[in-house]
Design goal:
Shape: flat
Number of helices: 3
Strand content: 5-15%
Largest sheet: 2 strands, antiparallel
Amino acid sequence: MAEKGALKVIKTANAETPLTQPGVTPLLTVDVWEHAYYLDWQNRRADYVKAVLEKVVNWASASERFAAAR
């Protein structure tokens, strides 16, 4: 997330998303609530996150959002 030229890593609760927070530009989000991964990954949350970061995330888009937020 970028906020006024600064990067932040944030954690939200209760299915809240950075998309609803005013004044911030989410660069990348990963849903780690159990509903997002449990059926396929069971209790292997770390493996799920690794797979998302390696196979799903569009890093070029995240880079473009970062450049635009600076």
